[in-house]
Amino acid sequence: MGEEEATTATFSERRHRKSKRKFSKVRDSEQLDRLESLPWNSSISQDEHDDPFSMIVGSNEVEGGGFLSLEEIDEAEYGLDIPEPEYIQRNKKLKEDTDLNNKKSDGGDVKVETVTDEGNKSNESKKKKKKKTKKKKEVSENLKVEQTDAGLDTNVENDIGEGEIDETEFYAWNELRLHPLLLKAVCKLGFKEPTPIQKACIPAAAHQGKDVIGAAETGSGKTLAFGLPILQRLLEERDKAANLFEEMGEETERYAPTGLLRALIIAPTRELALQVTDHLKAVAKHINVRVTPIVGGILAEKQERLLKAKPEIVVGTPGRLWELMSSGEKHLAELHSLSFFVLDEADRMVQNGHFKELQSIIDMLPMSNISPEDNSQSAQNCVTVSSYQRKKRQTLVFSATVALSADFRKKLKRGSVKQKQSLADGLNSIETLSERAGMRPNAAIIDLTNPSILAAKLEESFIECTEDDKDAYLYYILTVHGQGRTIVFCTSIAALRHISSILRILGVNVWTLHAQMQQRARLKAMDRFREKENGILIATDVAARGLDIAGLKTVVHYQLPHSAEATRASAEGCSIALISPKDTAKFASLCKSFSKENFRRFPLENSYMPEVLKRLSLARQIDKITRKDSQEKAEKTWFDRNADSVELVTETYDSEEEQVNKHKQMKASSGKLKKLQQELNTLISRPLQSKSFSHRYLAGAGVTPLLQQQLQQLARQKVSDQKGSVLGKKGLVVIGQDCVEALQALRSSGEEVECFTFYHILAIAY
Ligand SMILES: Nc1ncnc2c1ncn2[C@@H]1O[C@H](COP(=O)(O)OP(=O)(O)OP(=O)(O)O)[C@@H](O)[C@H]1O
C-alpha cells in the first residue's frame, strides 16, 4: 500500500469514528433522499426583494441542488460560534431594558414573565455552553486528526489556539455563514471583516450557486471572494459525506471523492498565480485541501509530479496549463469533475499573449450550458464523478475592471455568441470569455469599481496617428491644452521611459509612476504631481489603477489600456486616446465593451505641427546621443566593477591611433550634443506658435486678453529662466487661438465618429 493510500485509510477510519460520534442522527434512507433533494440553502429567499444582495447581483434564482444546507451544520460543533461583540450585546440589553420600562409604564404583570424568561434563557445558555465545550473539544481533536492526515504541523493548539483570538472582533463574518472551519481560518489570518467584494460575492457564489462576474480594484480581496466559495463547497460535500457515512459505509467515497480536480483557477501571470496559491493555502491550511500552482519557469516534470498528488485546486497560467493539458496530463484532463472554473484578472488575460492558450483550455471544458440530459450523459462517461460534482460548474470571472454591454445578460440568455465560436474577429473581451466558458444568464454581476475614465466625467476622444507620430501629438496636447493636471497612460515601462525622457528634454517637467518603482518613490511622485496645478504624470495603467486625482483635466492614452481602466476624475475633463494602426482592434474592443457607438475625434490645429516636429526632432537626436553615452558609461562601469572583483588589471589595448579616433568621436559627439541643445533651448524659450501666426499681428490692435495673458506669462517665465536653466521647468506657452482646455476644444469642434466606421477606415487605410 502506497503512502498516500495509507493516509487515506487512516483518514477514513478516523472519519468513520468521528461520524459515529457526530452524525448518528442520519439513520435511514429516507433521510438520505431528503438530503439529496435539499437545495443549496433552503433559507435563501426566492423573492428578489427579500435578498439584500439582489440590488447588486441581479436575479435571485436559486440554482443547483443536492448540497447540504448550511443550517444543517451545527457551528457549535466546531467551537466557533462567534459571539456578538459587547457593544452589540450592550445595545440589545439597553433596548430590552427600555422595552421593559415602557411595558412597565403601560402597567401589566411583565416582571414575572421576564424573570421566567431570563431564567429559561440562562438555563438554555448554560446547556448550550456545556454542549459547546464538549463540541469544542471534539473539534480540537478533529482538527488535530485532519492536520496529521495532511502531513501538516501537528501542534494545532499552538497554531490556532483559541486564546489568541478575540472572537467578537470577527463578528462581521457571521452574516456570510461560512463553514466554521473557514470562519476559523479567516479569523486566524486576522481578517476582521469581509471586504465589500467578499460580502457581495460569497452569498451569490457560495450559497446561491451562481456564476459571478466580480470587479473591484486591486487589493480589494478578490482572491478570497472566489476562494472561500470554492472551499465552502468542498467542505459542505465532505460534511455531507461524513453524515452519510454511517448509512453507506465506504460508498460515501462517491459523495466526497478525493483526488479529483474540483477548481481550476487561471491567472495571467506567474506572480499572480503564485500569490493566489499562497493566499488559498493560508486559508486551506487546516482543512486538508490541496492547492497547487502550475506556472511557467518551474520544471514541467516537477509540476507533473505535483499533479500526481491530485490536488483539488489548481492555480495556473494559461501557457503552462495548456502545455500540460495538451500533452494529456491525467489530472488536468479530468475536467468533468470540475465544480469551479475561475478567471482571475480577466481584464489582463484578454490582452496578453496567452489568449490563444486560454481559448484552448476553455474549449476543453465540458459545456455546462448544454441540456441537462447531454450534460449527465457526458458526465456518465466519466465514472469517477459523483452526483454532487455533476452539479453545474460555476464560472467565476474576476477583474480589476469590467465593462459589460447593457445587453450582456440578454446575450447570455439568447446564447447569441456561439459557445465554441472562433474569436477571429479580434474582439477579445471579458464578455466573450465568460460566454465561452459557459456562464449562465442569471450570473451575479458585481461591479464595485470606481467609475472608469471612459465612463466617468471625462469625455472621450481620439486622435488617429502613426506609432511614430504619437510623441508629436502628445507634446502638442501638453503644450496647447496643458491646463490642469494631466495623466499620460502607457502600458509598458519602456514606453514610459521613452516619453518621460523626450518630454524632459523638451523642457516639460513630468513625474513618473510604474509598478517597478518602490512604494516610497511612488508615493513621492504622486504627492509631487498632486501639488502642481498643471502637473503631468506619466504612468503605466497598472500602477495608476484606482487613483483618485482631484483637478484631473486631461488623460492621454499614449498606449491603450489593457481594459477600460479605472482612474477617477473628480473634475470634468477629457480623455484622448492616440490610436495607431496597431491599436485599432483593441480600440474597437474597448468601444464594444463600453457599448459605445460613437467617439469624438479630438480637434487638431495642424499649423502648430511644423514647429512641434522641429522641436521633437531635436529632442530625439539629443535623447539618442545621451542614451548612447550613458549606455557606454554603464557598460564600462560594469566591466571595471567585475574586473575589480576578480582583481583583474585592466589595460587599454587600443593603439594610439584608435585612442585619438575615440577621443575625436567623443568630442564631436559632445559638440553635436551641445549644438543641438542650444538650438532646442532657443526654440523652447519661445512660445509655441502656429505657422499662420503673424508677428505683425502683435503690433496691431487685435491683441486678445488671452494672448495678453500668455505674453505676460512668457515675460515672467523669461525672468525665471534667467535665474535657472530653461530645461527642467515647465515653461509651456502657446500663442494662438487654440490655447484652451482640451475639454473646451473637444466640445467646441470635436467631430463625432462612429466606432464601426473608424475601425474599418483604419483597417483599410493601413
Ligand atoms: N477580509 C479581509 N480583511 C483584511 N485583509 C484581507 C481580507 N481579504 C483579503 N485580505 C488581504 O488583502 C490583500 C489583497 O487581497 P487580494 O490579493 O485578494 O486582492 P485582489 O483584489 O485580488 O488584488 P489583486 O488585483 O492585486 O490581485 C491580501 O494581502 C489579503 O491577504
UniProtKB/TrEMBL annotation:
UniProt domain Helicase C-terminal: residue ranges: 457-631
Enzyme class: hydrolase
Xref: InterPro entries: DEAD/DEAH_box_helicase_dom, Helicase_ATP-bd, Helicase_C-like, P-loop_NTPase, RNA-helicase_DEAD-box_CS, RNA_helicase_DEAD_Q_motif
Biased composition (Basic residues): 14-24, 126-137
EC number: 3.6.4.13
Recorded catalytic activity of this chain's protein: ATP + H2O = ADP + phosphate + H(+)
Positions of the Helicase ATP-binding domain: 203-420
Basic and acidic residues bias locations: 25-36, 94-125
Domain remark in the UniProt entry: The Q motif is unique to and characteristic of the DEAD box family of RNA helicases and controls ATP binding and hydrolysis.
Protein name from the UniProt record: ATP-dependent RNA helicase
Organism, as annotated: Lupinus angustifolius
